[in-house]
Amino acid sequence: MKSIKKVVFPVAGLGTRFLPATKASPKEMLPxxxxxxxxxxxxxxxxxxINHLIFVIGRTKNAIIxxxxxxxxxxNELFDKKKPALLKIIxxxxxxxxxxxFVRQENPLGLGHAISCAAEIIGSDDFAIILADDLIKxxxxxxxxxxxxxxxxxxxxIAIEEIEKTETDKYGIIEYSSKKKNLYKLSSIVEKPxxxxxxxxxxxxxxxxxxxxxxxxxxKTKPTVGGEIQITxxxxxxLSKSDIYGYKFKGQRFDCxxxxxxxxxxxxxxxxxxxxxxxFKKYLQNIKIN
Length: 290
Hints:
The protein is α/β, with parallel strands linked by helices. Helices cover about 30% and strands about 25% of the residues.
């Protein structure tokens, strides 16, 4: 199998659940302590050996481009003011061996459509997809774990986790024919089934590894739920041609597309942040909750 060197970040969504904060600023630029969500996603990819980052952006997402671009004025300012630690942080956002490409999605027509916008750049390569909304706190990057499993089994793997049965109408839900430890062989997948129709409570989370075969299937997929082209439908078509496995990942996921999940992530990451964790923990211990 081809090695995974490309990752797609679909970041063209409007972020309506975070209005008015996202009226002029992308939700992917919302910070978890001191780093934006999209940087956590990029770091997960880079720490997994991926060196080509493909961002599918919308019209209002230029802040993402700027974040991953060089900033000579800022770098000179930090150098002149003798702030080497901050200068190092800025320069390390994108190492020299990593390449960024930005592609425009003219209309937010679903995850499947967003991936198809990057098809020309992906070409015939196997690739990863990371959704920045799904922030996963783990000892080893989830995509790195998935790549290791992929190299031993098959090129198509999606991350899954158990959710409350009442929440199935918010996720793609899988059914499986067999399992071995935390690896499930998919037999079907359905986008946002109602709790009374869902076959399992195993939900798809924003980490995917695919062969380029998925791209042709996406182009043949028609809009369904929400009038969008769903990656779930393309995965369903792929099942008749290729094996796909669900990987129940290790670690804690935060749904940073929701206000509550975003707040939880900030608390958990702050408690691990070497600069603020001591004082923040003390604050939490003394806070009065009415």
